[in-house]
Amino acid sequence: xxxxxxxxxxxxxxxxxxxxxxxxxxxxxxxxxxxxxxxxxxxxxxxxxxxxxxxxxxxxxxxxxxxxxxxxxxxxxxxxxxxxxxxxxxxxxxxxxxxxxxxxxxxxxxxxxxxxxxxxxxxxxxxxxxxxxxxxxxxxxxxxxxxxxxxxxxxxxxxxxxxxxxxxxxxxxxxxxxxxxxxxxxxxxxxxxxxxxxxxxxxxxxxxxxxxxxxxxxxxxxxxxxxxxxxxxxxxxxxxxxxxxxxxxxxxxx
Length: 254
Hints:
Pfam families: adh_short. By secondary structure, the chain is α/β, with parallel strands linked by helices. It has one domain (18-253): NAD(P)-binding Rossmann-like Domain (Rossmann fold, 3-Layer(aba) Sandwich), CATH 3.40.50. The chain is built from 7 helices and 8 strands; from the N terminus they run E-H-E-H-E-H-E-H-E-H-E-H-H-E-E. The protein has an 8-stranded mixed sheet with strand order 3-2-1-4-5-6-7-8, with helices on both faces. It is globular.
């Protein structure tokens, strides 16, 4: 991973910050990546495959924003060593990390608990809970090197009030809320890292379309409409805010 950290001369709310976004290939992760870049951040784009991320990279670069970086990372198969190696690459390239945004998610189907396949349960828990934990843990030393670091876990309404058939995905999102609260308490005293969860609401994404194929996708907002709420939490506006289970309301984190 190589990049030029030249700054956007126009400035922005995230000027000179280095921010890692998972799930940057499409949907919410892509929208958040584009919004962060537009606000002056050097964005580390992470998803399964480097080639898939190149169009997002090109879109940011061609717009004249700070040159992004690409960090391929398969959350389903990555081991603890892989996450540590990824953090080491970020450290060697940038020397610190100012923001970590967990947008990657996987909900392959809806199913009754009675019928849930155990191996699929473990896979969904791994992508939506275990992988975010391991990546966050690996990146904590880099986040502590920043003066004002922010971790944002993407939440979901089904991880705050359980709904039938959401199975392992809902269980994982409940776990994310617990992880957020524990980490926020452990980092609160230093005041250098803030940790929050943010529920963006139901959006027009490929995951939603796969779960509800008969639903009109235009009945839900585009992910770009909520991206600024992530910028809010990652930048100076979010200072002093930690340990909060937030939601997006009228484009803001509340």
